Amino acid sequence: MANARVIFHVDMNSFYASVEIANHPELREKPLAIAGKAEERHGIVVTSSYEARKMGVRTTMTVREAKKKCPQLIVRHPDFALYRRTSEQLFTLLKDYTNIVEKASIDEGYLDVSNWIHRRHPLNLASEIQSRIREELHLPCSIGIAPNKFLAKMASNMKKPMGITVIRKRELSQKLWPLPIGKMHGVGPKTEEKFSLAGIKTIGDLAASNPDAIEKKYGRNGRRLHDFANGCDVRPVDPDSWDRYKSIGHSMTLPHDTVDLKMIYETMQHLAGKLETKLKREHVASYELVVMIRYHDWKTVTRHKSTMQPLRSWQEILNLAFSVFQANWSGEAVRLLGITLASFQAISESTKQLDLFSYQNDIQTEELVDLIDRINDQFGENTLLPATRLLNKKHSESPDSGC
């Protein structure tokens, strides 16, 4: 019992919509959707209130489709600055209970409350946390309670909104194994299809499979999912994981002060390529970009842009960065340019809404990424690498690297 772990997964319910309602009480009990701006070609529903969901509004619908389902739908554009501030308040509150808090995303996190186990019943503690979030931030949340992160995440999904669910290892056959394999955290549509074709229809089917056969067929990720299906997850709650990737950036002083857009574009292209390499190395995508412009007289301006689309490739980074530059450039000679990325999310967790004007390119990119991932899963993580990664590896292993 002394070594027992008690892990909470706190998952905010319909976070963006709930934050809007908390800050605009007139929206309470009304159908609300948070969606991108149609004029930016991203008029896609990101999230919606439970009132809107009851009317058939779903994430990834276009605003036009959503309004057909719910003519009285209220549409708000995302206020990322407000959501970030609210997220900071949330995690400050959670740290009142333990220092072992891992921010998994802007609206969810893990708490290791094992040190409370002899003082408070986990259900009572979870109820207090949920009540405080509701009373102080005016936001609903669900909390999963389990002996590890995977089971806590699965538990928090089982009752929304305002649910508190416990999964114990001895309850796997009743609570976890009957669920469809597509409901398992970490199993996306493509993995679900692969499992289904192999006759693995439920989480219990995966748990009962031969682990060596699963690893041989699906690689290390398949073995990891098999462990999870059997309730095994040794990952610690890591308070430093979010800050580890707080931001990455590169800047470059131009050979001479210039107003030449071709040179500026090529410089930003070089910076975007370096950032792509870092994103791939850390297996993360970015949702926030900052462009720095330093002029000939050393005057420096920075401009921030949040995006609903994950930034993963150099082309995506370059397109957004150059657009921000053009919108904010004074026309004066530029001395230095910089691009910084922030608001990261693991690639496995990030999603991309297909742009109607570029979805064919996106699909081709997804197929290439999937192929590389399959090869690396099957034959080892570093089987296929970008050439720049190999160069970086070579430099880091050289005697001059200080390693």
Written account of the structure:
- GO terms for molecular function: damaged DNA binding; DNA-directed DNA polymerase activity; magnesium ion binding.
- It catalyses: DNA(n) + a 2'-deoxyribonucleoside 5'-triphosphate = DNA(n+1) + diphosphate.
- InterPro entries: DNA/RNA_pol_sf, DNA_pol_Y-fam_lit_finger_sf, DNA_pol_Y-fam_little_finger, DNA_polymerase-Y, DNApol_IV, PolY_HhH_motif, Rev_trsase/Diguanyl_cyclase, UmuC.
- It is built from 15 helices and twelve strands.
- A five-stranded mixed sheet has the order 5-6-1-7-8.
- Among the domains are: 15-79, 3-Layer(aba) Sandwich (MutS, DNA mismatch repair protein, domain I), CATH 3.40.1170.60; 181-244, 5' to 3' exonuclease, C-terminal subdomain (DNA polymerase, domain 1, Orthogonal Bundle), CATH 1.10.150.20; 245-353, 2-Layer Sandwich (Dna Ligase, domain 1); 364-398, no CATH class.
- Mean pLDDT is 85; it is low at 351-370 and 376-403.
- β10 (284-295) and β11 (300-311) form a beta hairpin.
- It has helices at residues 15-23, 50-54, 63-69, 80-94, 122-136, 149-156, 172-175, 189-197, 203-208, 211-229, 241-244, 261-282, 314-328, 359-379, 387-396, and strands at 7-12, 32-35, 45-48, 74-76, 101-105, 108-112, 141-146, 164-166, 247-258, 284-295, 300-311, 334-346.
- It is globular and about 70 Å long.
- It has 403 residues and is of the alpha+beta class.
